[in-house]
Amino acid sequence: MKYDVKAFELLSNEEIADGIFDMRVKNDELAPLAKCGQFAHVYVPSKTLRRPISVCDSENGVLRLVYQVKGEGTKIMSEMKKGEAVDILAPLGNGFNIEKSKRYCLIGGGIGVPPMLYTAKQTENPLVITGFRNKDLIILQDDFKNAGAELVLTTDDGSAGVHGFVTDVLKEKINEVDEVCACGPTPMLKAIAQVCKEFNKPCQISLEERMACGIGACLVCAVKVRKNGEEIMQHVCKNGPVFNAEEVVF
């Protein structure tokens, strides 16, 4: 895994939904190295720990990082201005393993939707299922359409798209795809893994955990996985964030 710390030029940082921002930063050396499912570790002034943000897209030396304001760190990020230098450690983690010959179902829930966009761009005719709590949090729908995806939108409250959960749609359409990739809250990932097991479909999931170092040096993001019949601890930042669903002990 090749990564480094570099200054990225901030090209734009715009709010695209309620509390959700779309940041684009440029570095011709590191941005092209990013693979779908990896993340960037962003230094925030006055904060000790970096903020891990999934790679939403990478094109022409520009990293696209879509994030949600959840605390002081991301609030400071949202106030960064065009032209500033942003200190970023990237690209980090192991991403999705995509085979061109397969048709994928890509599922994102909430802020787990952004990394599925770059993943969609690596596949042919993907089925993309996005899930949000309500219509005010919907993002990136036009981007997925432009990427050639068959897109299904769901909301928990029925304020837009299908009223229900991403798993409801997955059960209806799972026989149309060869493999499933997903990112989002742990309960959603657990439910998706169960559906895929029921239908005997391979499934890759990107776990969301708190990360401190981003490179496996600390123990903050340790999760339990099953390898060769034994349960062991691995790091989401280094061994993941993408794991085979059947290996994760929920």
In short, what is this structure?
By secondary structure, the protein is an alpha/beta fold. The protein has helices at 72-78, 114-120, 141-146, 166-173, 186-198, and strands at 4-17, 20-26, 39-42, 51-54, 57-59, 62-68, 85-92, 104-109, 127-132, 150-155, 162-163, 179-183, 203-206, 222-227, 230-235, 242-244.
Give an account of the 3D structure:
Belongs to the PyrK family. [2Fe-2S] cluster binds at residues 213, 218, 221, 237. Pathway: Pyrimidine metabolism; UMP biosynthesis via de novo pathway; orotate from (S)-dihydroorotate (NAD(+) route): step 1/1. Keywords: 2Fe-2S, Electron transport, FAD, Flavoprotein, Iron, Iron-sulfur, Metal-binding, Pyrimidine biosynthesis, Transport. It is a single chain. The chain is an alpha/beta fold. It is built from 5 helices and 16 strands. It has helices spanning 72-78, 114-120, 141-146, 166-173, 186-198; strands spanning 4-17, 20-26, 39-42, 51-54, 57-59, 62-68, 85-92, 104-109, 127-132, 150-155, 162-163, 179-183, 203-206, 222-227, 230-235, 242-244. The strands form 3 sheets. A 7-stranded antiparallel β-sheet has the order 4-3-7-1-2-6-5. A 7-stranded mixed β-sheet has the order 11-10-9-8-12-13-16, with helices on both faces. It has a two-stranded antiparallel sheet with strand order 14-15. α2 links the parallel β8 and β9 (127-132). α4 (166-173) packs parallel to α5 (186-198). The longest helix is centred in the last third of the chain and has 13 residues, at 186-198. The protein is globular and about 50 Å long.
